[in-house]
Amino acid sequence: MNRVTVVGAGLAGCEAAWQLANRGIIVKLIEMKPKKMTPAHVSGDFAELVCSNSLRSDDLLNAVGLLKEEMRRLGSVIMECADATRVEAGSALAVDRTGFAKMVTEKIKNHPNIEIVEREVTEIPDGTVIIATGPLTSDALSKTINELFPSQEYLNFFDAAAPIVTIESIDMESAFFASRYDKGTADYINCPMTKEEYVSFWRELKDAREAPVHGFVDAGVFEGCMPVEVMARRGEDTLRYGPMKPVGLKDPKTGEEPYAVVQLRRDNADGTLYNIVGFQTHLAFPEQKRVFSMIPALKNAEFVRYGVMHRNTYINSPKLLDRYYRLRSDGRIRFAGQMTGVEGYVESSASGLLCGLETARELLGQPPADFPKETAIGALAAYVSNESVVDFQPMNINFGIISPLGYKVKGKRNKNAEISKRSLLIVDAIAEACGFSAEGGQA
Asked: What Å distances lie between residue 409 and 63, 402, 404, 414, 417, CA to CA?
């Protein structure tokens, strides 16, 4: 009987285990929580979201929207649970984080082909194994993994989580509900600032006291998750072109765009908690309270979670992994999730899906599905396994790494629509040829 060990029950590990189990593979899923927790997690549930409640755009004109739709068509458990626990957030897919994690946990624990083992892994298990321990892999396992390829050191970067406030503590006299360009429903709370308010805020933010983070330097921060105070230090207007951009938002009190805007996004299904969008930070907690309360609508804000900073670790995948996320030097060992250099919750889940699916087909003596670069899921795998990459950095999915159409289409939106249409046709054809069922198993 075919067996696979999956280490780590984050989004990638759960997705890999699900894809394997649905194809008749017996899975041992090893997770160190709740016996041993990481600094970034707060519960014992699987697939815990810690950086943001948003899985980003659900629009097929956006590459991450395409990736999510591909995953839906391939029977993704992560997408099934995300869709079932979504909360309103305009054109973005945001979820009730607690409900999402609980639903994923229940599905994984109740699958007859998955055995859950609660312990820390310090050595590579025997047999076929998928390591999906994420960006906060324990020191002991990190040391063991590094010994697999001593000449290829781990690469590190830092990212940060944003604060969360209660809706009842937001001064709605100084805020308004709206989505940028009135796109979708008005799901965001917008906190406008005048030039004077913004400049005062910026001056305090750039000089605010940071919490100590071992080994942290500004250059080590991943651009896609840049702490707000690091952005502030890059110049007075940097935030106004980033998370505080007012473009596409009109203050109903003035009928004009504010000088700067802070957006808040719903963090739970009840709508009682809101995340400060783009305000990932590693400021000391008292400083977060002091500086962020300078935002007029947040002058009396109740912070139920302050922003935190944590280390992310990833391997030099282009030198180490193939397009199926297998270790080139030892094919029985595979990796999935953020430690491969895919960046983001959706991308991590997608890597787990492809790794689990292709591992199952290999063990069952079936030919690989071989998702090409014309698909988002295939393009992501091709990027992290591209041996020609010299300066490897974590990557979100984007249309730039998906194969071009080969013919001209007028307008970026039209071009993206054509790429998405082509991709989904290919995914559907692969699913039919391989006999995938809607539930992610063999039909």
From this structure: 17, 16, 11, 7, 10
